[in-house]
Amino acid sequence: MLNRLPSSISALLDSRTEGHSLPAGLYTRDDVFAADLDVFFHRHWIQVGLECDVPEPGDAVTLEIGSASLILLRDDDGEIRVIRNSCRHRGARLLDEGRSIVSKLVCPYHQWTYELSGELIHAPHMGMDFDKSCRSLKPVHFKSIGGLIYVCLSDDPPADVAMLEAVMEARLAPYDIRQAKVAFQFDVVEKGNWKLTIENNRECYHCSANHPELCVSFIDLDFGFDPASLSPEDREEAERHQALYDARTREWEADGYPSAAIEQLAGNTTNFRTQRLIIAGAGESQTPDATAASARLLGTMTRKDAGDTHLWGHNSWNHFMGDHAVVITIVPLAADRTLVRTKWLVHQDAVEGVDYDLDKLTSVWLATTDQDSALVERSHAGIADPAYEPGPYSTFTEGQLDNFVTWYIERLRAHGY
């Protein structure tokens, strides 16, 4: 007798067992992928870039999100804008994907010309009575939160992004990411579903066996453990570590660095979590020896031991340290393909070879990204196997995965699936 699989997305959602990974079809099916793009990448706030991606007037970056194309630019007045990359004549793309320097936005097809504000200023051969004022380029809802650019492609963006904005403007202020610069960017296309990329990021169950470089600065106790499996000595160590966290958090906050964990996860529309984490070893930065990679600290930072302010959303994760920041965003390309874009930020006046060594700056997350890419590919291949059936999450180390997929199902349901 054939195994009858749920035919609709709603039936797939119904078949999920609480505390378990998702049914295979929610990772592998093309109709689910289309729904994911529509709901999570068009109707929710997503992190797409940085103010410092476009440091000067005329700088522009084109971003592709499914069939949608956006232009992030800095206009002639130095203001950030995000606009649709579609000419108001017959829809042709204005700019190719990647970086550009422009004085005007000129459509290559029929030379309709726009100011960097999006205003149409030239439409040849359209007649004297043609009204250019109603043909400006379409703007996109966006927010710069501490220098991180979030967009929502919906006409009705979720209002609860206000919590993210309020929390992170204060936390990111000392790093002054708006005035940082991108020292390096690395793109990789993972051979797996975007949700597997996010799930992999939200647990460190796999870290000790797969990320030797990252574990120099990460503390495994931060990511959960089974108390019953610990020896009396390890249990005492865990208790000491928690006491240290409590003390360090009080110290950081007394010095003006907000640090306590803040979460807006399942039960909300906009998904994020932030906390200042202790850095292991030398305690300064996510580098091969956990010491600072850059002698020139970010923004107004005066200390190298202020931990790692981590921030994640449903398409991003970020680490802000005294000397540099690592900003990672993802964009789904297909049900089994996900773009992972990593940027390393340093102070805008830091000089490579003088203030920082590029290899020391980037090597930990380059290695970690490659390792994670292989793990996501391995996971997706296994889920696509007919033998796959959803397995239970560890309540000790994978609670945030259960939280994420619960939120994922809630949001699909909220949009009619």
TrEMBL record:
<dbReference type="InterPro" id="IPR001663">
    <property type="entry name" value="Rng_hydr_dOase-A"/>
</dbReference>
<dbReference type="InterPro" id="IPR017941">
    <property type="entry name" value="Rieske_2Fe-2S"/>
</dbReference>
<feature type="domain" description="Rieske">
    <location>
        <begin position="45"/>
        <end position="151"/>
    </location>
</feature>
<keyword id="KW-0411">Iron-sulfur</keyword>
<dbReference type="GO" id="GO:0016491">
    <property type="term" value="F:oxidoreductase activity"/>
</dbReference>
<dbReference type="GO" id="GO:0005506">
    <property type="term" value="F:iron ion binding"/>
</dbReference>
<keyword id="KW-0560">Oxidoreductase</keyword>
<dbReference type="InterPro" id="IPR015879">
    <property type="entry name" value="Ring_hydroxy_dOase_asu_C_dom"/>
</dbReference>
<keyword id="KW-0479">Metal-binding</keyword>
<keyword id="KW-0001">2Fe-2S</keyword>
<dbReference type="GO" id="GO:0051537">
    <property type="term" value="F:2 iron, 2 sulfur cluster binding"/>
</dbReference>
<dbReference type="InterPro" id="IPR036922">
    <property type="entry name" value="Rieske_2Fe-2S_sf"/>
</dbReference>
<protein>
    <submittedName>
        <fullName>Rieske 2Fe-2S domain-containing protein</fullName>
    </submittedName>
</protein>
<dbReference type="Pfam" id="PF00355">
    <property type="entry name" value="Rieske"/>
</dbReference>
<keyword id="KW-0408">Iron</keyword>
<dbReference type="Pfam" id="PF00848">
    <property type="entry name" value="Ring_hydroxyl_A"/>
</dbReference>
